[in-house]
Amino acid sequence: MNVIETGIDGLLIIIPKVFEDSRGFFYEKYQLERYKDIGIESEFVQDNRSRSSCNVLRGLHFQKTKPQGKLITVTQGVVFDVAVDLRVESDTFGKHKSVILSESNHIQFYIPPGFAHGFCVLSELADFEYKCTDYYDPLDEGGIYWSDPTLNIDWPLLKPIISDKDSILPMFRDIFS
Ligand SMILES: Cc1cn([C@H]2C[C@H](O)[C@@H](COP(=O)(O)OP(=O)(O)O[C@H]3O[C@@H](C)C(=O)[C@@H](O)[C@H]3O)O2)c(=O)[nH]c1=O
């Protein structure tokens, strides 16, 4: 397993050790001790899976008082995944990091609690799986509009398919001013 630091404290790109043979491949998607060793110490309490079609964009989402850390794996398709640092005391507050996650690169993204998160789908469809360090609470949901220019995210698409909920999210400065 290789771990790439992102320049944002705690935000990690993880490349699992993949064993390939004539049958296909195998890798450990999560292993408590090994992931603890790289700094992912929180307990995961919820596992989610979503499927999205090409051009779908979900995000940018966070929970206001019960922030969720997320360990993300894409098991089908290709996505452009983004995390925005919302930790006000952080040197990288407001900064983001993006990564391509796909069924063939097997890359995982660990987003610690305190980030907004979103992704868009670059393949015909994508299966998106993530472990969370806190429970989903619909009353605690927050979000930022995906193309907020303040964030300067270089999304690889112009007209994504988004939910009604995501289409009316506020701008970063409306939340943090
Ligand atoms: C996220 C979530 C949704 N739901 C329900 C609520 C709703 O009826 C339906 C779809 O919810 P959403 O539209 O919020 O799903 P989605 O847009 O996929 O939300 C997710 O987006 C990505 C970017 C994240 O980072 C996640 O934390 C989460 O916010 O599923 C749950 O029951 N549990 C959950 O944990």
Oligomeric grouping of the chains: single chain
- Strand content is 35-45%
Question: Can you count the beta strands?
Answer: 13
CATH fold-level label: Jelly Rolls
- Which sequence of SSEs, written as H and E, runs from N to C? EEEEHEEEEEEEEEHH
Q: Which descriptor suits the 3D outline?
A: globular
CATH architecture heading: Sandwich
Q: How far apart are the first and last residues' alpha carbons, in Å? A: 40 Å
| Uncertain residue ranges | none
Give the CATH level 1 class: Mainly Beta
The percentage helix is under 10%
Walk me through this protein's architecture.
The protein has about 180 residues and is mainly beta. The protein has a single domain, classed as Jelly Rolls, CATH 2.60.120.10. Helix content is about 10%, strand content about 40%. It contains 3 helices and 13 strands. It has helices spanning about 30-35, 165, 170-175; strands at about 1-5, 10-15, 20, 25, 45-55, 55-65, 70-75, 80-85, 95-100, 110, 115-120, 125-130, 140-145. Strands 1-2-10-7-12-5 form a 6-stranded antiparallel β-sheet, with no helix packed on it. A 5-stranded antiparallel β-sheet has the order 9-8-11-6-13, with no helix packed on it. A hairpin with a 6-residue loop joins β1 (about 1-5) and β2 (about 10-15). The chain is globular and about 55 Å long. The mean pLDDT is about 95. Dtdp-4-keto-L-rhamnose binds near residues 59, 61, 117, 118 and 163.
Secondary structure: elements and pairs:
Blueprint: E1 2-5, E2 12-15, E3 19-21, E4 24-26, H1 32-37, E5 46-53, E6 57-63, E7 70-76, E8 78-85, E9 96-102, E10 108-111, E11 115-121, E12 125-132, E13 141-143, H2 164-167, H3 172-175
Antiparallel strand pairs: 1-2, 2-10, 3-4, 5-12, 6-11, 6-13, 7-10, 7-12, 8-9, 8-11
Bound molecules: dtdp-4-keto-L-rhamnose.
